[in-house]
């Protein structure tokens, strides 16, 4: 049976290379975007092969789901270019240096890895030693929300900044959406949305002891929101200044900042949790971050400030 | 392990060429996404050389995926706005 | 291997030709409607057999039910997707082959 594993790897690698080639160099942009979405799905498989199930979950929901929906919606807004023009690939001479410098660097890197493979223990042992203090069983969650919580704080900051930048560019270009050709999509979305909620709550709960957590949970929930929007639902997220939206979008960042500052005033270091409270604080932060990530991904997909009142659009 | 390193290197170089050589901005965004995936693949694969599972690169890659989607969203919206206001999809 | 595991293996092997034929249909049929027909029918049956076979091989009821849930979700998604593609093609004036 073990002889099949390299074969599987080789097949997966060849498919990934071919799909990446298609998504960068295909003559048709639609084909390129669809290739990229399949590339994301197969990358999730590769992450499972590399024993990184947390990344696989996030890649499948974000890399293939949210990014794919975003690119497809953008493609719908761009007029179809003539193929020859769209597929133009020109590399001017000055770029060749920029291209070859990383090539040489990578070759040297690979060679040095072959010559002297990295033998240090990495940070795995350190995490394993200190993990009981964090109060969660999943090492990835412990790193994300206890040991390197500052990274996570800044990352949610980047998400918030991204949606802020997008809202400031004007109203959402696809808030009206296409006419629905079939009643099947709204029916399916209504039937499946509870499943999205259930899966993301499950992932959030699971995150403390197994692969899962705020990121995959938020990604699944955000993808569910995008599906509902595509199916013609009128989201209650509006661009009005009144209402809970701005608060909910900043909930993750705000909660993390509050927790970090309160512990600092209580005599600990910034983002150091009292060890008795660690597990509960991490659960609280995960809940806030998961909700915020879901809404922020949805806001990113909107591509602009949502209207104050959504227009009705059913299927035709 | 070497296989996945070589795969990541090939993906990275392909995407690098794509970023430099494509005219259409949406293609450049796609190439950038492929490139970031290649970098994540490098990171996780190299971390596997150490005995035991190192969760720190996994957390970094999770963070990186979310940051990539935010930058992609902003870039895509900018391309759509550029097309609407200037009738072009490439940079001068 | 026990009888149940052999049965599981047999089901997986029995499911594979459906995928193969669905893909042949996708590549060789003349227009979008017949292609969708081949793909949706073939792949759904193939996936059902593979899921059932893997569930039997796993030997746990919870895993079998999870795999069946995946199959049901896939059925719903593929039915909706195929319907959407076909209706969009029809409304854009793609004529069915032979009409």
Automatic annotation (TrEMBL), chain A:
Residues 14-80 form the MrpA C-terminal/MbhD domain. Keywords: Cell membrane, Membrane, Transmembrane, Transmembrane helix. It is a multi-pass membrane protein. Its main location: membrane. Coiled coil: none annotated. Pfam families: MbhD (PF13244), MnhB (PF04039). The keyword Repressor does not apply. Residues 187-277 form the Na+/H+ antiporter MnhB subunit-related protein domain. Belongs to the CPA3 antiporters (TC 2.A.63) subunit B family. This is Sodium:proton antiporter.
UniProtKB/TrEMBL annotation, chain B:
The chain crosses the membrane at residues 6-22, 29-47, 59-80. GO terms for cellular component: plasma membrane. Belongs to the CPA3 antiporters (TC 2.A.63) subunit C family. Pfam families: Oxidored_q2 (PF00420). The keyword DNA repair does not apply. InterPro entries: CPA3_antiporter_subunitC (IPR050601), NUOK/Mnh_C1-like (IPR039428). This is Na+/H+ antiporter subunit C. It is a multi-pass membrane protein. It is found in: Cell membrane. Keywords: Cell membrane, Membrane, Transmembrane, Transmembrane helix. It comes from Thioalkalivibrio denitrificans. It comes from the Bacteria. Gene3D superfamilies: 1.10.287.3510. The keyword Cell membrane applies.
From TrEMBL, chain C:
The keyword Magnesium does not apply. One of its GO terms (molecular function) is sodium:proton antiporter activity. Pfam families: PhaG_MnhG_YufB. It comes from the Bacteria. The chain crosses the membrane at residues 6-27, 39-56, 68-90. Keywords: Membrane, Transmembrane, Transmembrane helix. This is Na+/H+ antiporter subunit G.
């Amino acid at each position: 049976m073990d002889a099949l594993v390299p074969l599987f790897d080789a097949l997966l690698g060849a498919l990934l290379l071919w799909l990446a080639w298609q998504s960068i160099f295909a003559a048709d942009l639609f084909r390129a975007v669809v290739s990229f979405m399949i590339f994301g799905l197969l990358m999730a498989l590769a992450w499972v092969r590399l024993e990184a199930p947390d990344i696989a979950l996030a890649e499948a929901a974000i890399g293939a789901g949210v990014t794919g929906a975003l690119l497809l919606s953008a493609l719908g807004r761009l007029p179809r270019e003539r193929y020859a023009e769209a597929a133009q690939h020109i590399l001017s001479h000055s770029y060749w240096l920029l291209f070859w410098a990383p090539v040489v660097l990578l070759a040297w890197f690979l060679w040095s890895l072959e010559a002297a493979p990295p033998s240090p223990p990495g940070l795995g042992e350190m995490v394993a030693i200190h993990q009981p203090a964090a109060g969660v069983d999943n090492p990835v969650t412990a790193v994300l929300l206890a040991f390197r919580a500052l990274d996570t704080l800044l990352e949610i900051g980047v998400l918030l900044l991204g949606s802020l930048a997008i809202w400031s560019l004007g109203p959402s270009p696809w808030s009206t959406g296409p006419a629905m050709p079939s009643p099947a999509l709204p029916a399916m979305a209504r039937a499946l949305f509870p499943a999205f909620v259930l899966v993301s709550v499950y992932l959030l709960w699971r995150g403390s002891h197994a692969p899962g957590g705020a990121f995959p949970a938020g990604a699944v929930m955000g993808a569910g929101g995008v599906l509902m929007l595509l199916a013609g639902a009128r989201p209650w997220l509006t661009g009005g200044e009144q209402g809970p939206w701005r608060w909910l979008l900043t909930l993750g960042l705000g909660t993390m900042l509050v927790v970090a500052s309160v512990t600092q005033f209580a005599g600990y270091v910034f983002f150091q949790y009292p060890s008795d409270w660690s597990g509960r604080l991490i659960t609280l932060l995960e809940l806030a971050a998961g909700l915020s990530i879901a809404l922020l991904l949805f806001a990113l997909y909107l591509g602009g400030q949502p209207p104050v009142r959504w227009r009705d659009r059913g299927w035709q | 392990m070497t296989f996945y390193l070589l795969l990541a290197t090939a993906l990275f170089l392909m995407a690098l060429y794509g970023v430099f050589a494509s005219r259409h901005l949406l293609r450049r965004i796609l190439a950038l996404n492929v490139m970031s995936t290649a970098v994540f693949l490098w990171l996780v694969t190299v971390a596997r050389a150490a005995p035991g599972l190192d969760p720190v690169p996994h957390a970094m890659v999770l963070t990186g995926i979310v940051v990539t989607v935010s930058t992609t969203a902003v870039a895509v919206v900018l391309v759509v706005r550029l097309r609407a206001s200037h009738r072009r999809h490439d940079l001068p | 291997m026990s009888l149940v595991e052999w049965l599981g293996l047999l089901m997986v092997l029995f499911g594979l030709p459906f995928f193969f034929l669905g893909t042949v249909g996708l590549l060789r049929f003349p227009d979008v409607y017949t292609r969708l027909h081949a793909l949706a029918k073939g792949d759904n049956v193939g996936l059902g057999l593979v899921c059932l076979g893997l569930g039997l091989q796993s030997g746990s009821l919870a895993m079998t039910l999870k795999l069946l849930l995946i199959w049901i979700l896939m059925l719903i998604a593929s039915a909706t997707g195929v319907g959407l593609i076909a209706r969009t093609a029809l409304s854009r004036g793609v004529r069915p082959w032979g009409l």
